[in-house]
Write a structure and sequence with these properties.
Layout (H helix, E strand, L loop, with lengths): L1 H8 L5 E3 L11 E4 L2 E4 L5 E2 L4 H7 L6 E3 L2 E5 L2 E5 L4 H12 L4 H21 L14 H24 L4 H8 L3 H8 L8 H4 L2 H7 E4 L4 H13 L3 E3 L4 E5 L4 E4 L4 E3 L3 E3 L3 H7 E2 L5 H16 L5 E9 L3 H5 L5 E5 L8 H11 L6 H14 L2 E4 L1 H4 L9 E9 L1 H10 L2 H18 L5 H4 E7 L1 H8 L35 E3 L10 H21 L1
Helix pairs in contact: 1-10, 1-21, 3-4, 4-5, 6-7, 11-12, 14-15, 15-18
Length: 518
């Protein structure tokens, strides 16, 4: 959508093709029974990118703050400013008094990284500035910032090890390690994981829901003369003919194509016959690289309609709440034990999986979002919509679906989440629940066509299949195919909404530069 908006503004003839009824993918919202829910991300962080994009496109987006609370068992703190780090330290020290020195070391590291984050996102991203005319920005902001940015990038690269490994070098207490690391996707680079406190302070929420960002971009594309075609799925790309085909055998010719969806899909459906041998070899190498890798963690989300006013929830925590009902931590539950279940699935009894699920849900960390605490108009009067999510393994859901008891498993998972949260932080929740429903990793895969139901692109590993250094982000949008560029969560790691927007702008710039030359 970012690519389409900037290209349409530049006078290009633009067609945006979307497989779903609504644009925006996981940056979307929906309403059910008068309750408003966010389908994907629960809040947004600027990262020096989103606001710069909105300003460049002259989009007025009404926003509110999205304050975060953190809780473990009965201890809950509200993240308000940098001083909240002291409250976080005290919370951890109260729960893990034997690890106070290690906790102090963790807080010291977080403070250092927060300063680095202030540098990294310290100015509006220059990709969204007109550097030819904005001399004031160049000399007063960009040039003084560049040396600090280069120095900070070096720090980021040196802290590129998985957060679990990093914490293993400074924290002996396994429960304390878990309580910090289980917030994040497996093997998240340590720098980005330990910067989470900065992200909590950066969160904002569009009035009307996260989907308002996608709606604003959609309106801007149409305003600039772009076309949008929804409920259209591309099933074939013929690179040599510069042609795409949809599920109804309709075809479109293109001068340039920007693919902003799943990269495995692009390389599977793209025909390379007729291209030069060198291009075909590079395309096949890229295809093999992507198909050997997999998407990162997915999520399971429970959406609940509650006959209880938002004020009852506000007394306990903010509308964006990370809550862990047990200080014990997941330990090996979501790694070794889960892998054993997956590797021996044909021999595992259903009861063993349910027993594992009990442990998994009791020890996990939940992301809880209450849209009505951010915008009071997002639920019927006197009622509250709540979204409870946890990281989930796609392969487990896929195998259970194949075994024929997915609906039963999902109901077991829904009930456990509802019971655990009712027995701990929101004691009135189960009694006041009107209705509930859920999205699984399979739902995400089906809706947005995301491999393994991933929500932030590729799984973290030693050798990433895409660009993963910020200084090289300009190259992340290139493909081996002539006149095809790529953008979105799959083309850079680590990914998120800001990087998806940034790569969208970078891809648009590549097209415009090519057009200028021709």
């Amino acid at each position: 959508m970012t690519s389409a908006a900037f290209l349409a503004r530049a006078g290009q003839k633009v067609l945006l093709i979307e497989k779903n009824k609504e644009c925006g993918g996981l940056v979307n919202s929906f309403t059910r029974d008068g309750f408003h829910f966010d389908a994907g991300v629960r809040a947004l962080e600027d990262a020096g990118i989103i606001f710069a994009m909105l300003k460049d496109l002259k989009i007025q987006l009404e926003i509110v703050e999205s304050p975060v609370s953190l809780g473990i068992e009965d201890e809950i703190i509200h993240i308000e400013n940098l001083d909240s780090l002291v409250k976080y330290r005290d919370l951890l020290a109260k729960l893990y008094p034997e690890s106070e020195d290690e906790i102090n070391g963790i807080i010291k590291t977080i403070r250092k990284i927060m300063k680095d984050m202030d540098v990294l996102y310290g100015i509006e991203n220059p990709v969204f500035k007109d550097l030819k005319s904005d001399r004031n920005f160049i000399f007063k902001k960009l040039l003084p910032w560049l040396p600090k940015f280069i120095f900070t990038v070096g720090k980021i690269n040196r802290m590129n090890m998985p957060v679990e490994d990093y914490l293993g070098t400074i924290v002996k207490n396994p429960s304390l390690r878990d309580i910090i690391s289980q917030h994040f996707f497996k093997n998240t680079p340590a720098f980005f994981a330990m910067s989470y406190f900065s992200l909590y302070l950066d969160y904002f929420y569009p009035k009307g829901g996260v989907g308002k960002l996608s709606e604003a971009l959609k309106n801007k594309i149409l305003e600039y003369g772009g076309e949008i075609m929804t409920e259209t799925k591309i099933i074939e790309v013929v690179a040599e003919e510069r042609l795409v085909k949809d599920q109804n055998s309709n075809t479109w010719k293109y001068a340039n194509l920007i693919w902003a969806a799943d990269l495995k899909t692009l390389y599977i459906i793209t025909r390379t016959d007729g291209l030069l041998p060198g291009i075909r070899i590079k395309a096949e190498d890229a295809k093999n690289r992507f198909l050997k890798n997999r998407g990162g963690d997915s999520v399971f989300s429970l959406f609940i309609e509650v006959d209880e006013p938002p004020e009852s929830f506000r007394k306990i925590a903010n509308g964006h709440f990370f809550y862990t009902p047990s200080r014990i931590g997941l330990g090996d539950t979501h790694r070794g034990e889960l892998n054993n279940l997956l590797n021996n699935f044909d021999k595992v009894e259903k009861g063993e999986i349910i027993a594992w699920l009990d442990k998994f849900t009791k020890l996990n960390t939940y992301e809880i979002s209450i849209p009505g605490l951010k915008d009071s108009g997002l639920a019927p009067p006197g009622k509250t919509g709540i979204i409870i999510s946890l990281l989930a393994e796609y392969d487990l859901f896929r195998l259970i679906q194949k075994a024929g008891w997915l609906d039963e498993f999902i109901k077991e998972l829904e009930n456990r989440i509802l019971n655990i949260i009712s027995d701990s932080v929101y004691p009135f929740l189960k009694e006041k629940t009107i209705a509930c429903f859920s999205f699984s990793p399979l739902s995400i895969e089906n809706r947005v066509g995301s491999s393994e139901g991933a929500i932030t692109g590729w799984a973290f590993q030693k050798f990433m299949p895409v660009i993963n250094k910020i200084q090289n982000s300009d190259r992340s949008v290139l493909t081996p195919f002539p006149s095809i560029y790529q953008a979105g969560q799959w083309v850079y790691s680590p990914a998120g909404v800001p990087m998806s927007i940034l790569t969208g702008k970078l891809a648009a710039e590549k097209v415009l530069k090519k057009s200028d030359k021709s």
